[in-house]
């Protein structure tokens, strides 16, 4: 099974996450299939997501984690740049 989830990057106390596609059984910070965006919870512009790629992976059967699902829905509602690549 393939999941769309967060991969933690950044330094201690300064989190930065990448939104990635990875196998469900691989480690959180392990090998990924593709990167779809990033999330900086501390900065002013925290999200950049490639929505077309996310839709492609969902059509292929990938499942989003709860956190990524919340981020994507808030990004879609916010009306920020529709197709942002990282």
Please render the helix and strand layout as text.
Layout: E1 2-11, E2 14-23, E3 34-39, E4 47-49, H1 51-59, E5 63-64, H2 66-78
Parallel strand pairs: 1-5
Antiparallel strand pairs: 1-2, 2-3, 3-4
Report on this structure.
The chain has 86 residues and is an alpha+beta fold. The chain has one domain: 2-Layer Sandwich (S16 Ribosomal Protein, Chain: A). Helices cover 26% and strands 36% of the residues. It is built from 2 helices and 5 strands, in the order E-E-E-E-H-E-H. It has helices at 51-59, 66-78; strands spanning 2-11, 14-23, 34-39, 47-49, 63-64. A 5-stranded mixed sheet has the order 4-3-2-1-5. The longest helix has 13 residues, at 66-78. It is globular. The two termini are 25 Å apart. 20% of the residues are buried. Mean pLDDT is 88; it is low at 81-86.
Hey, roughly how much beta strand do the residues contain? 35-45%
| CATH architecture label name | 2-Layer Sandwich
How much is the radius of gyration in Å?
Answer: 12 Å
Order of helices and strands: EEEEHEH
Tally of strands: 5
The order of strands across the largest sheet is: 4-3-2-1-5
Per CATH, the superfamily is: Ribosomal protein S16
Cα-to-Cα separation, first versus last residue = 25 Å
What's the overall average pLDDT, rounded? 88
Return the CATH topology: S16 Ribosomal Protein, Chain: A
Helical content (DSSP H or I, runs of 4+): 25-40%
Category by helix and strand content: alpha+beta
- Quick one: CATH class? Alpha Beta
Q: Report the biggest beta sheet as strand number plus sense, adding barrel if it closes.
A: 5 strands, mixed
Overall shape: globular
The parts where pLDDT drops under 50 for at least 5 residues are: 81-86
């Amino acid at each position: 099974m393939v999941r769309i989830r967060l991969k933690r990057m950044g330094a201690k106390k300064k989190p930065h996450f990448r939104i990635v596609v990875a196998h469900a059984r691989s480690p959180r910070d392990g090998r990924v299939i593709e990167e779809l965006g990033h999330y900086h919870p501390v900065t002013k512009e925290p999200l950049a997501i490639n929505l077309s790629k996310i839709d492609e992976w969902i059509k292929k059967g990938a499942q989003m984690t709860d956190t990524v699902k919340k981020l994507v829905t808030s990004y879609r509602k916010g009306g920020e740049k529709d197709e942002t690549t990282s």
